């Protein structure tokens, strides 16, 4: 009985081919690297997913760098100043 439930739950959570195509198409539209290509250029789903992962990693690096810069800036201003309040709100 539990084997049947696990098969049902895994099949219920699977994505159909049409859903996968739709998701990959949406990713193609928002990825700068792939979105700049001509529409006629074929890009595999695995390439789109790889580029998505790379893009997310780059965004995370940018967030880390900006957070570090804001932290350094916060150290250089008076902690009661309006500028410090703005920087603290950006770091949260």
Q: Report the average pLDDT across residues.
A: 82
Tell me the helix content.
over 70%
- Got a strand count? 0
- Parts with pLDDT < 50 across at least 5 consecutive residues: none
How would you sum up the global shape?
elongated
Termini separation comes to: 48 Å
Helix tally? Answer: 5
By helix and strand content, what is the structural category? mainly alpha
- β-sheet strand percentage: under 5%
Radius of gyration: 22 Å
Give me the strand/helix succession. HHHHH
Mind describing the biggest β-sheet?
none
Task: Write a structural description.
- There is one protein chain.
- This protein is mainly alpha-helical and 92 residues long.
- The chain has helices at 2-13, 17-30, 32-35, 45-76, 82-91.
- The protein has a domain at 43-91.
- The protein has five helices and no strands.
- It is elongated.
- The termini are far apart.
């Amino acid at each position: 009985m539990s084997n049947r439930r696990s098969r049902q739950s895994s099949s219920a959570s699977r994505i159909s081919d049409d859903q996968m195509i739709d998701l990959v198409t949406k990713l193609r539209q928002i990825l700068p690297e792939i979105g700049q290509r001509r529409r006629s250029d074929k890009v595999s789903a695995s390439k789109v997913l790889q580029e998505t992962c790379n893009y997310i990693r780059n965004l995370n690096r940018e967030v880390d760098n900006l957070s570090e810069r804001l932290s350094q800036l916060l150290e250089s201003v008076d902690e009661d100043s309006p500028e410090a309040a703005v920087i603290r709100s950006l770091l949260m």
